[in-house]
Automatic annotation (TrEMBL), chain A:
Its main location: Golgi. The lineage of its organism: Eukaryota, Metazoa, Chordata, Craniata, Vertebrata. It is found in: Golgi apparatus. GO terms for biological process: early endosome to Golgi transport; intra-Golgi vesicle-mediated transport. Residues 1247-1270 are annotated as: Disordered. The keyword Flavoprotein does not apply. It comes from Sparus aurata (Gilthead sea bream). Residues 1248-1264 have a biased composition (Low complexity). This is Trafficking protein particle complex subunit 10.
UniProtKB/TrEMBL annotation, chain B:
GO terms for biological process: endoplasmic reticulum to Golgi vesicle-mediated transport. It comes from Sparus aurata (Gilthead sea bream). Keywords: ER-Golgi transport, Transport. This is Trafficking protein particle complex subunit 2-like protein. GO terms for cellular component: perinuclear region of cytoplasm. It comes from the Eukaryota. The keyword Ribosomal protein does not apply. Belongs to the TRAPP small subunits family. Sedlin subfamily. It is found in: Cytoplasm, Perinuclear region. The keyword Ligase does not apply.
Length: 1309, 139
């Protein structure tokens, strides 16, 4: 018969035999069951130690309920009662504001005994009977009165004696009983009433009736329910009351903690009692709280101790640690440790261990295993700290042992209650313990000499023995377990091999877990630690793998200090592995690492230099990345255009920042060049579009590997542009945005091709050195730490584009290579054809005077050799004046004068040869020559449209220039140059300084020629030797009327010269005149006088008619009077015999013997002095004979008084219409055009009719058009200026005012 | 007070890291770097559950035997890490929080400096002063 014991719990722990099984068996066999034997062990019970070794397994406990009275009744009901009591949860309202809880109540029903009642002061709770039940099925008054009442009374008294008020009386009623004793049977209620009146004084609820409990009836069920409810209620009431009292006591005790003599251990036991009870009630949370409070209290004391406030009781915890056997979590309660605490002998580790084991147990009940791991880690850290704080003497390594064992123990415990999947999913909770254990094992290994190459020394072995001694014996729970932490530690410390095996196992486990949960940095840190282990073991190869991995992560995230440290370790590995290339590369990195001390840096630098200088196999060259050694920061071209002609000097200045701590001598610094033949790149200048803002300078952005992380300089800056999307229909803005133009650069992966990565990559970059190409080279350079400027002279032989590709620095056997120079650097070499230009040395060039012109020869690629000469084809219009001293200046491309030499100029009939001095290519040769542009003798109005037609030989063109009043002449020169088979044609523009006009003046038959010379230039001239000659007629005499031999002709002024024409026999109708004068700029020597010619032709010089006018006063008057008609008599007289042409011309109209010509006269007064009355014009028929005279009478009226000029009389030629005239181009028809055109014609030797016609068509736009079209209209033609002489021109006549005129008009002029 | 204070950029490179001079600086670098693992873990864990409403203070990142490492992350994913000596038990969570808040304020000031290039190492005397105030006074 069993009262109650649940054998299995949800979380029973994992391992083997537990002490409690004994308890179970005892509990099962003993009767009545007395589950706990706490009396002897609980210090507060003050009872003597009892016989047996106390065995406790609290989890199996239930609150004790005593049963008194009729045992048989109870026994019959026990099963149902035990089953049904926990079925319904009850709400347990808590004191102190704690949240109410639903609780399933269970109970351990034990037979009532006096001893069970706690004595005064006994604060044991586990054994505390929370409820006392008296069972009776008495229904007989007699029996009741006889025995039951008495028994009850005794029971009540003993309860009262112990102050227990938690009791209930259950009266069981069965029909059987009633039937049995019918006579004595009182009504059921009566006996209950009696009991109630006897015992339940005002507490009627303390007596419960259970009716027909064994029957399956509704009534029975009902009474069961009410009984159970009553029991639960009373139990809870009892809990509340008793626990409350207990807690109060406990608190009181705690408040005394400042008093001397207070002991934490004692208090610990008290509070743990409460924890036990909560645990018993399965209120694990509350139980845990008790332990946590104890934990916190203890922690506080330790902290206070640290602050100098030491409690007496803490002394026991400060005792030297003698045992470091680790946590023990396999027992629910570690009684050994508990005893120690109880006795006040526990060490700090013991107390902590015990506390944690309890917390662990409860947490596992609460199914919070991950909290266990977390708390474990905290605990271990905390313990280490506390021991340090309390200055507890611990054997070195002992704590490591303790921590190691504890870590593994916790992990085992967790593994025991979780399945594999759960464990894997919660690596993050356990990995800390793994890593911690690894760490500790490592330091143990180091401590015990297990990590060295040689193995442990005897000293190490002694230490090992000491440590093992502190472990004690293995706990019985794990003796059979092969993998117990104890065994692991012992084994690991036993031999190097075993240690290595265990250490690696742990390390790898930790690393894998870290990786699994994505804590890569932590994994790498473990890896690094592993690498250090391998290094100690003399296995650098494995170490390097881990170090490299760690390094990669530090580099990629820009942690410079770890990078330096790791790299130094790698260098050590590589040195041991004799991986020279790698080692040198790493050394170079370290030598330039500012995180290291100067000594270390020098050391690593020396490592490189030592290797470089070592005379070994010369073929064994080591190629290292340049970036670790020195950084190219700037490149500067001189000249800055980075474009030179072939063969020119181009200097490239490199600025290298040397990262080495000492100066390094470099045998050769070279840059390889890629050459691109430029297509059509003969003149590269046009292509030089400078990309940089600073011309000729390229700045290299260098990611500083030591200081700036790679991200801050990541990529090129964004180039953003605005974009607008407009609607095509109405141009309204649809959207606007920003577009990145250089996404291809910005979005580029940085990890793959960033130069920084190659720098930090430990294996040197595989660099293909392109030999044989063109190189920039400098030998023997010493690079000082910091910036160094190195100047190269760049090859510039062939024209084309040169791209700098790679940079090499050779130090002995070591070569540093910069595989790509980026941004790419180019320079251009171009080839230029020689160029010859001619320009005036002063503007403007004046024709007719010697002028200096500058010849500029850019030699380009052509080197002028000795004997090379320029051949100038001579022209008549612009001779080159021989000059005695003509110097040529040679200047280099930088416009610096490099030489001067005298030119020798030889002129032959056709060419002028200028011997050039030898001049190097791409130099400038300059010299000046004096040339004279002959002023064309024609009039300056000679337009030349018709002269260009079909002309083989060039004639200088003169034209009026828009900018100047001077007439311009373009002179072309043809020069044969030695570098070309073609002649070079060059043009110069000269300006004629003068404008010349001529006019024919007549006085009757006498003729005068006037020439007007206008100076249109800005220069003042002296004019001398003014002459006019006639070419054809020798007999003609031109008598100068000019008095001065020399005359000043100022700028913008004119000089007039006059000649009278005298002739002997006949005046030729046409005169070919040449005006000549000498001129020179004012104030210059006579020798500088240059001739000036002006040719012109005068036609129809002879006076044909003379016109005389006479004003006849009115009849009877002596003078004319204004307002009165006067007569005007015009007398026209033919003066000469008809000339040849004239006869031929006029004979057409009149074929009879008497030849006549028709003249038209016209009287017109332009100044409104006269009013012409009647016919003002008319036609006269004039015989073509000398002395033929015709008189015309015209009436005119003077309109004013005074001396009035005669009215103007015009005489015109009348040409009757004839078809022949219209069609036949008549030379005379040109008369209506200006006579000068004809003059031109003769001058120009151009007499072909086609040319005349074309010219005529141009000139006769106005009047001639109609004639040309053949419209038969008579026409009037004026005479040439000299042909008609008006005697009365400008003659005046006195006109008197009219008599009746009162107005006096005065004209003052 | 702290033994090491670090500011770490969004991309996980150190913007500022200072430790008490008496102790091995390198060790702190390793510690802070490793703590980024936990920072990232916490950020991503929070990101999943609460979206953008997250607390900047990440609390204790991980304890070691000697140090406690606390983390804080700004909205722009700049991380602050404060390492405190484990033996320094007087520091409460609230004090750590206020240290972070002070640090954050000072950091914001640094960022507001128009001459400061975000992403560069912090070289500000004011910030230095704030950090020094929070560091263990050794001397």
């Amino acid at each position: 018969m069993t009262y109650s014991l649940r054998v299995s719990r949800k979380c029973r722990g994992d391992t083997g035999p537990i002490d409690t099984t004994q308890l179970h068996t005892q509990a099962l066999t003993k009767k009545p069951v007395f589950v706990c034997h706490f009396h002897g062990v609980l210090p507060l019970t003050h009872m003597e130690c009892q016989e047996e070794k106390p065995i406790i397994y609290t989890m199996e406990n239930k609150p004790i309920v005593t049963c008194a009275g009729d045992q048989s009744v109870f026994t019959s009901l026990y099963t149902s009662l035990a089953q049904q009591l926990p079925r319904e949860p009850m709400e347990w309202r808590r004191t102190y504001g704690r949240a109410p809880k639903m609780i399933h109540l269970e109970a351990n029903f034990v037979q009532f005994k006096e001893e069970l009642l706690p004595k005064e002061g006994n604060k044991a709770l586990l054994t505390f009977p929370f409820l006392h039940i008296y069972w009776t099925d008495c229904c007989d008054t007699e029996v009741y009165k006889g025995s039951v009442k008495e028994d009850m009374m005794r029971w009540q008294n003993s309860l009262r004696a112990h102050g227990s008020a938690d009791w209930v009386i259950v009266v069981v009623e069965t029909n059987d009983n009633k039937k049995k004793n019918k006579t004595n049977i009182l009504p059921r209620s009566s006996i209950v009433d009696k009991i109630r009146s006897d015992f339940c004084n005002k507490q009627n609820d303390r007596c419960v009736v259970l009716s027909d409990p064994l029957k399956d009836s509704s009534r029975s069920q009902e009474s069961w329910n009410s009984l159970l409810l009553k029991l639960r209620t009373l139990l809870l009431m009892s809990f509340t009351k008793n626990l409350g009292r207990f807690e109060d006591d406990m608190r009181t005790l705690r408040e005394k903690r400042t008093q001397p003599g207070w002991s934490f251990c004692e208090y610990f036991m008290v509070q743990e009692e409460l924890a036990f009870v909560f645990e018993m009630l399965q209120q694990f949370e509350d139980a845990l709280v008790q332990y946590d409070e104890l934990d916190a209290l203890f922690t506080q004391y330790v902290l206070n101790f640290g602050a100098g406030d030491a409690a007496n009781w803490l002394g026991s915890f400060c005792a030297p640690v003698r045992s470091w056997s680790g946590l023990l979590l396999r027992r629910p309660i570690d009684m050994e440790k508990r005893d120690g605490i109880q006795r006040g002998e526990a060490s700090l580790l013991d107390l902590r261990s015990y506390l944690f084991s309890r917390q662990c147990t409860l947490l596992i009940f609460l199914q919070r295993p991950w909290e266990v791991t977390q708390r474990a880690l905290e605990l271990l850290h905390n313990c280490v700290q506390e021991l340090r704080l309390l200055e507890v003497t611990v054997l070195e390594g002992a704590l490591d042992c303790w921590v190691f064992l504890s870590c593994l123990e916790v992990l085992h415990r967790i593994e025991g209650c979780c399945d594999q999947a759960q464990l894997a999913a919660n690596c993050s909770h356990t990995v800390g313990l793994w890593a911690y254990a690894t760490d500790k094992l490592k330091s143990l290994g180091e401590h015990c000499g297990l990590v060295s190459e040689k193995g442990p020394t005897s000293e190490d072995l002694n230490r090992t023995v000491d440590l093992l001694a502190g472990l004690g014996d293995e706990r019985p729970e794990t003796v059979n377990s092969l993998q117990s932490p104890y065994k692991k530690l012992k084994e690991a410390l036993s031999s190097m091999e075993a240690f290595e095996r265990h250490y690696l196992e742990l390390s790898h486990a930790a690393m894998e877990m870290y990786r699994a949960i994505g804590r890569l940095r932590s994994a790498r840190l473990v890896g690094k630690s592993l690498a250090e282990f391998y290094m100690r073991k003399g296995d650098p190869e494995r170490a390097e793998t881990f170090l490299q991995e760690a390094l990669k992560s530090y580099v990629s995230e820009g942690w410079s200090l770890p990078v330096t440290h790791t790299r130094r370790q790698i260098a050590e590995c590589q040195k041991l592995l004799a991986r020279t290339d790698d080692y040198l590369q790493t050394s170079a990195l370290l030598a330039g690492d500012v995180n290291l001390t100067m000594e270390e840096r020098k050391h690593f630098c020396q490592e490189i230099l030592t290797f470089a200088d070592k005379s070994g196999d010369p073929s064994h060259k080591v190629t290292l990345g340049m970036g670790v050694f020195t950084q190219l920061t700037r490149l500067q071209f001189c000249p800055a255009t980075a474009s030179v002609h072939s063969g020119a000097v181009l200097q490239v200045e490199l600025t290298l920042r040397c990262l080495m701590p000492v100066s390094v001598r470099i045998q050769q610094l070279a840059a390889s060049i890629h050459f691109d033949l430029e297509r059509g790149g003969t003149n590269g200048r046009s292509k030089v579009a400078q990309r940089q803002t600073n011309p000729g300078t390229v700045e290299f952005l260098q990611a500083d590997s030591t200081e700036a992380p790679p991200f801050s300089v990541a990529g090129p800056p964004l180039e953003l542009d605005e974009i607008q999307d407009r609607s095509p229909s109405d141009n309204s803005l649809n959207s606007a945005g920003v577009v990145c133009k250089n996404t291809h650069l910005v979005m580029r992966r940085h990890d793959s091709n960033s130069p920084l990565d190659t720098v930090n990559c430990v294996s040197p970059p595989a660099v293909a050195i392109k030999e044989g190409g063109q190189m920039l080279k400098v030998q023997d350079v010493t690079l000082q730490p910091g910036n160094n400027n190195i100047i190269f002279t760049a090859p510039s032989g062939q024209p084309g584009t040169y791209t700098l590709r790679q940079l090499y620095a050779t130090v002995g056997r070591v070569q540093f290579v910069l595989p790509h120079i980026y941004p790419s650097v180019q320079y251009e070499v171009y080839s230029q054809e020689p160029q010859l230009t001619v320009e005036p040395s002063s503007e403007p060039l004046l024709a007719g005077l010697p002028q200096r012109v500058k010849f500029t020869l850019l030699t380009g690629h052509y080197a002028v050799k000795k004997g090379d000469a320029l051949q100038l084809s001579n022209t008549d219009t612009m001779p080159i004046l021989p000059s005695t001293s003509c110097t040529a200046c040679i200047s280099n491309p930088a416009a610096e004068l490099v030489g001067e030499s005298v030119l020798s100029i030889q002129s032959s009939e056709k060419v002028t040869s200028i011997s050039l001095p030898p001049t190097p290519p791409y130099h400038t040769l300059e010299f000046q020559l004096e040339v004279l542009c002959v002023i064309p003798p024609g009039t300056d109005r000679s337009t030349n449209e018709r002269l260009t037609n079909g002309e083989v030989r060039h004639r200088p063109r003169s034209y009026s220039h828009p900018d100047t009043p001077m007439t311009a002449i373009d002179q072309r020169m043809s020069i044969d140059c030695p570098w070309s088979i073609y002649s070079t044609l060059l043009a110069l523009t000269f300006y004629i300084p003068f404008k010349t006009k001529h006019s024919l003046l007549s006085a009757g038959n006498r003729k005068y020629i006037q020439v007007c010379v206008q100076n249109v230039s800005d220069v003042n001239f002296t004019l001398a030797e003014v002459k006019l000659t006639e070419k054809q007629h020798a007999l003609l005499e031109l008598q100068s009327l000019n008095t001065k031999t020399q005359q000043l002709l100022c700028s913008k002024h004119s000089v007039f010269c006059l000649w009278e024409v005298r002739w002997k026999d006949d005046l030729p109708s046409c005169l070919q005149c040449v005006f000549s004068a000498d001129f020179s700029p004012f104030n210059q020597d006579i020798s500088t006088f240059k001739p000036f010619y002006y040719q012109f032709q005068l036609e129809r010089v002879t006076t044909l008619y003379s016109v005389r006018a006479k004003i006849l006063p009115p009849a009877g008057e002596q003078y004319c009077r204004s307002g009165l008609l006067c007569g005007l008599e015009v007398c026209m007289t033919r003066l000469t015999e008809p000339a040849e042409g004239e006869i031929a011309e006029d004979s057409k109209t009149d074929t009879d013997s008497l030849k006549t010509t028709k003249l038209m006269y016209e009287v017109a007064d332009s100044s409104s002095n006269w009013a012409v009355c009647g016919k003002s014009s008319g036609m006269v028929l004039m015989p073509v004979a000398a002395r033929a005279t015709h008189k015309v009478q015209i009436e005119v009226m003077p309109l004013f008084a005074g001396h009035l000029p005669f009215p103007k009389i015009k005489v015109l030629k009348y040409m009757p219409h004839t078809a022949a005239v219209a069609i036949q181009p008549d030379p005379d028809s040109c008369v209506e055009n200006d006579s000068l055109s004809l003059l031109d014609k003769t001058l120009d030797d151009q007499t072909d009719t086609a040319s005349i016609r074309s010219r005529g068509s141009v000139h006769s736009v106005g009047s001639g058009d109609q004639q040309q079209k053949g419209v038969a209209m008579p026409r009037l033609e004026p005479f040439s200026p000299g042909q008609v002489f008006n005697h009365s021109n400008m003659q005046q006549v006195l006109v008197l005012p009219s008599t009746d005129d009162h107005i006096m008009e005065v004209n003052a002029t | 007070m702290a033994v090491c204070i670090a500011v770490i950029a969004k991309e996980n490179y150190p913007l500022y890291i200072r430790s008490v001079p008496t102790q091995n600086e390198l060790k702190f670098h390793y510690t802070v770097h490793t703590s980024l693992d936990v920072v990232e873990e916490k950020i991503s864990a929070v990101g999943k559950s609460l979206g953008d409403q997250r607390e900047l203070y990440l609390g204790l990142l991980y304890p070691t035997e000697d140090y406690k490492v606390y983390g804080y992350v700004t909205n722009s994913k700049v991380k602050f890490v404060i390492v405190v000596d484990s033996s320094n038990t007087s520091l409460r969570d609230n004090e750590i929080r206020s240290m972070f808040r002070k640090l954050h304020n000072s950091f914001t000031d640094v960022m507001c400096n128009p001459f400061h290039n975000p992403g560069d190492q912090i070289q500000s005397k004011a910030f230095d002063g704030i950090v020094s105030g929070m560091m263990v006074q050794t001397g």
